[in-house]
Amino acid sequence: MNYFLQRFGRLFVIWLPLVWLILFFMLPLIEMINVSFSEAKRAVPPYNPAFQFGPDGISFQPVADNYLLIYKYWEDYLWPAINSIRLAFFSTLYCLLLAYPMAWWIARSNKPLQHILLILVLMPFWTSSLLRMYALIGLLNPNGFINDILIWAGFIVTPIQMMQTDFSIYSGMVLSYLPLMILPLYASLVRLDSSIIEAAADLGARKLDIFKTIILPLSVPGIIAGCLLVFIPAVGEFVIPALLGGPEQLMLGKVIWTEFFRNRDWPVAAAIAIILIAIIILPIVYARYQDKEGIS
Amino acid sequence: MAPFICIKDISKKYGNLSAVDNVSFNLDKGELFSLLGPSGCGKTTLLRILAGFETTTNGSFEIDGVNMTNVDPADRPVNIMFQNYALFPHMTVFENICYGLRRTSLSKSEINSRVEELLELVRLSGMSKRKPKTLSGGQKQRVALARALARRPKLLLLDEPLAALDKKLRSETQFELCKIQEQLGTTFIVVTHDQEEAMTLSTRIGVMNDGKLIQLGTPKEIYEQPQTTFVADFVGEISFFEAVVKERKNTHWLLQAAVPIHVSSDFNLVVGQKVKLALRPEKIMLTSKPTGKINEFQVDIVDWAFFGAGTQYRVIGPEDVKLKLYQSHNQPSQSHVPTLKTGFVNFSPEAIIILQR
User: Fold this and answer.
1) Do A40 and A50 contact (CB within 8 A), yes or no?
2) Residues 6+ apart with CB under 8 A from B178
3) Do the domain assignments include residue A168?
4) pLDDT digits (tens, 9 = 90+) for B126-163
5) What contacts A216, CB < 8 A, 6 or more positions away?
6) CB A265 within 8 A of CB A259
7) Which of A78, A107, A265, B324 supports an S-S bond with A189, CB 3.0-4.6 Å?
8) Domain B5-226 -> CATH class
């Protein structure tokens, strides 16, 4: 009986997350692929499924029209795609540059201070992302807090245009994604034994030299993990550029939203999303490959 | 002539706490010096001061007449081998060893030949392309040693060099370390809490406690003439008992403990003085019958432990005097006698150590 319970428990622990992933991650993804190969029509739902269990049995009629459409009008999608990747790339870069010194400082603090600092890093996650973006708008607006202060102090006469610029978009992106960069960097830097750094200094290396030859190479796993954690969601980011950016900043996320809600063309929206996923998977595969190279 | 290494009045305070308290000593070139003490006695802090990782509150440190007290660790002719070896995990054995050499003005071919030399010295030839995590503990230790020696330091600091190795490997490595040190003639300072290690390795030992250097001497001096109770107790096994000086006989002092005890006349004693005596276990003889020798009395055997080469006994003499004694099994008559409940002990007057503090 005990043995049976143990076995059952073990199976349960393994199978529960697996069932969860299949139900809520894999099936929706398969459904999206299904939609992307379907024909659009005026109905509810607004498409003719490529694969379906109907009253007259299983039907399977995939159409590549949606992908062909995207291919035909590729120029319309190229700029949003470039915009999205550019946004994700620079957001990741700024996060990395800001997070590295912070993570280093946290990792080299004493233990009780480390816990406090890590909680402070995570604290923004306790508020809704949308709310934080509105708070940022309140700061950056022409009649917002920062401009008010600057005008009051007499540094400027007319407000600085900070909203609807790259500055406002990247402020929002960094604000949202910074913790995702700090945490893996911290995790890899905190494991770095201080005696290794002292050994390098003892062998004649100066501070910058130690950073380049010891600290940076040993934190590569943290850098890769942090960059993936920021880059992947940033590519599909839709809310932040929409709220903080100008109208000319068309992102892939926004294009999908338009196809989906405005044009009610679910199959094309799904096809774009699938292409976006493919774009995101490439750097991961590359990173995994790099990682394996590094180990061997 | 000025001493090769001169450590003068070095102190390190953390707030009110003295980690290192006015430590001074000189070393000659080529010495293998051990800093011996329990954990937290300040020996590692002193080592880190010499390496340049800690500043001093007070005092100075000279090598070859050059003041090193405020020199950057990178510029000191001093290298350190860390207790955990601190090898660079992302570099091969070769890259680890030449890390220090690449930061000198040596040419590439000179570096290569010197690394080859070092690999041969520590018997790791052919391992140069391995990563540290594929090496055994003993191999890692040798890589760390080669890396620390690569820049030909005037002084090499070793922080518990053998602590991470298992017992058998440790004794082998001890002798190897001595051999390498003799071969190169580099001055070594070894920090250890293991008195056996300090004894076998060093030309001289400095015993530390509570940040102070308590006694400095050759292993023989430290073992046979400890000046304080701490040193006597920390280095090797020992038994203590108190006595009062009774009278001077022609060849000996007669002391009164629970039983009359004769000690060597070399000591400067005053009649009526209270003294603390100490006795090494191997200096005491245990017999089943009285032998009529000097300093003999009857004891009860409380406990014994068989060690193979010898047996250690714990006995209680008159007035609860507790003694530890060790009988070597080098003669059949001395092989251990577990059936014995009582016996007689005797020891020569010269075996007794009189402690000042």
Assistant:
1) no
2) B32, B200, B201
3) yes
4) 899 999 999 999 999 999 999 999 999 999 999 999 88
5) none
6) yes
7) A107
8) alpha beta
- Using CB atoms, pick whichever of A198, A205, A214 lies closest to residue B53: A198
| Number of CB atoms found within 10 A of residue A266's CB | 20
CB B63 within 8 A of CB B5: yes
- Best of A196, A202, A290, A293 to mutate (most B CBs within 10 Å, chain B): A202
Tokens of B131: 């990563």
Does a structural domain hold residue A59? Answer: no
CA distance B90 to A263: 54
What local confidence, expressed as pLDDT, does residue A89 receive?
Answer: 94
- As a whole number of angstroms, the distance between CA B212 and CA B46 comes to 10
- How does the average pLDDT of chain A come out, rounded? 88
Q: pTM of the predicted model, to two decimals? A: 0.82
Q: Look up residue B163 and give its DSSP letter.
A: T
Tell me the pLDDT tens digit for each residue of B82-128.
Answer: 999 999 999 999 999 999 999 999 999 999 999 999 999 999 998 99
Domains of chain B, by residue range, sit at 5-226, 239-355
Tokens, residue B41: 């006695």
pLDDT in tens, B235-260: 988 999 888 898 888 788 888 888 88
Dihedral angle, C-alpha A179, A181, A183, A187, nearest 10 °:
-170
HEC per residue, B64-86: CCEECCCCCHHHCCEEEECCCCC
* C-alpha neighbours within 13 Å on the C-beta side of residue B284: 30
Write the CB contacts of B66 (distance below 8 Å, at least 6 apart in sequence): none
* CATH number for position A173: 1.10.3720.10
> Distance from A287 to chain B by nearest Cα, in Å?
18
In a domain, A288, yes or no: no
Nearest-neighbour CA in chain A from B259: distance (Å): 55
A202 touches chain B (CB under 8 A): yes
Q: Are B118 and B146 in contact (CB under 8 A)?
A: yes
Domain count, chain A: 1
Q: Does A175 touch chain B (CB under 8 A)?
A: no
CB contact under 8 A, B86 and A214: no
Q: Per DSSP, which regions of chain B are E strands?
A: 5-14, 17-27, 32-36, 58-63, 66-67, 78-81, 155-159, 187-192, 204-209, 212-217, 239-248, 252-256, 260-264, 274-279, 285-287, 296-306, 310-316, 322-328, 342-346, 353-355
Residue A122 belongs to domain spanning: 73-264
Residue A279 maps to a domain? no
Q: Choose from A192, A203, A218, A220 for mutation: most chain B CBs within 10 A.
A: A203
Q: Give Cα separations from B125 to A218, B95, B146 (angstroms).
A: 26, 14, 12
Work out the pLDDT band at B319, boundaries 50, 70, 90. confident
pLDDT at residue B211 is higher than 60: yes
Instruction: Look at the block and give the residue holding tokens 């030399």.
Output: B117
CA distances from residue B351 to B228, B285, B295 in whole angstroms, order as listed: 16, 11, 11
Average pLDDT over residues A47-67: 84
What stretches of chain A adopt beta strand conformation (E)? Answer: 39-40, 47-48, 51-54, 57-60
Residues of chain B with Cβ-Cβ distance to A206 below 8 Å are 74
Whether B349 and B258 have beta carbons less than 8 Å apart is answered as: no
Annotation: CATH topology of B239-355: OB fold (Dihydrolipoamide Acetyltransferase, E2P) (2.40.50)
**Contacting residues of B for A196, CB less than 8 Å apart:** 86-89
